[in-house]
Amino acid sequence: MRTVLRRPDFRLLFAALVASMAAESVLLLALAVWVKDLTGSDSMAGATIFAVIAPMTLAPLVGWVVDRYRRRQFFIAANLVAAVLLGPLLTVRDRSDVWVIYVVAALYGLSYITLTAVLNGLIRHLVPPDLLADANGLLQTVRQGLRLIGPLAGAGVYAAVGGWLLVLLAMTGFLVAAAVVGRLRVEESTPSRPGRRGPSELGAGLRHLTGEPALRRALLGYGLGSLVMGFTESLIFAYVDLGLHRDAAFVGVLVMVQGVGGLVGGLFSAAVVRRFGEVGALAAGVTFFGPAALALAYPRLWLGVVALLLAGLSLPLTMVGLNTLIQRRTPPRLLGRVTAASEALVSGPQALSIGTGALLVGVFDYRLLFALVGAVTTAAGLYLWRGRGLTMPVAGPVRIPAPRKPADDGVLSRGGS
């Protein structure tokens, strides 16, 4: 990671992303707390998270738009727009204004997809292929650290002062990110903008994901695991209440333990990618979630701490493996669409599993459901592990393969990154 930080261009991007991710981390939980405070309703507070996730359905369109513009300029514009979108929150006063929070949450979710799609292309343009895992690992380490303190800090600021200061802090983070990247000097060609066969262009990212063997296996395996991973969002409350016999606030302690595991996973993720390849790192991340869930089926505090450390370790390994694989196996001109499509394919099942888990925990014993999560994620991890040879480290430069049937994509080979 020190090697990639020696690059001045990446240092600027890294500083911008720290500001942007800090803005994200303080805002998400606080929006739900804000709705809960105004309405007193748990379901309306939970609907805030759904509002953030719902724009995932627009991912193909978002990716297509991102691929039509230069990455640096688009990143600056997206952060400026994100800051502006938060402005209406300053008008929220009482329960009648809750709709404003929902609208802003949905627009914020849309901006998150956009920033993720353009970021992969910008990193791919700035960082050599052999340092992509280091760059992604460093960013995941920071993201996990911010997840450890950001949501609690955001909720604390809201409780102490109110939503207005929180909104201003988040807006400042996005504005700083835009200003820092504005100092970045990147030579980019102008992306081609064909005017015909729009539907074909929108589906180009999904076709590339299904046509490239390593990406196809990665999305199938991770998607299978995502179908049940979301169960744990509800199961952890039952584990604390029925298993450990503690107050719901103790969930915050376990989340902090998981955050520590995430920091460790972020620090070692690049080394895992170099040793086992991108699919191997993804397999390790998904597989670690299996024994973690199985351990939570047996309610003992010491075992729960070990399980949450493993669960935290799994997330950065998964994300670094997947992001690095996408960056290395996708032509630059398709990176926006492929990133957005992969985000939708993973987040969609995960959102569905969160809702399903909330229903199932009221019907079945939480220990049985944890065992189910453990079995499915272990199976998904082993499926991915069997395909690790698709991305085993090789000597020489990394080849970026062309998508299947490029003539059908309706785009030219020149790209913006």
From TrEMBL:
It is a multi-pass membrane protein. InterPro entries: MFS, MFS_dom, MFS_trans_sf. PROSITE patterns: MFS. The chain crosses the membrane at residues 12-35, 47-66, 98-123, 167-186, 219-242, 248-272, 279-298, 304-326, 338-360, 366-385. It is found in: Cell membrane. SUPFAM superfamilies: MFS general substrate transporter. The keyword NADP does not apply. GO terms for molecular function: transmembrane transporter activity. Residues 1-190 form the Major facilitator superfamily (MFS) profile domain. Its main location: membrane. It comes from the Bacteria. Pfam families: MFS_1. GO terms for cellular component: plasma membrane. Keywords: Cell membrane, Membrane, Transmembrane, Transmembrane helix. This is MFS transporter.
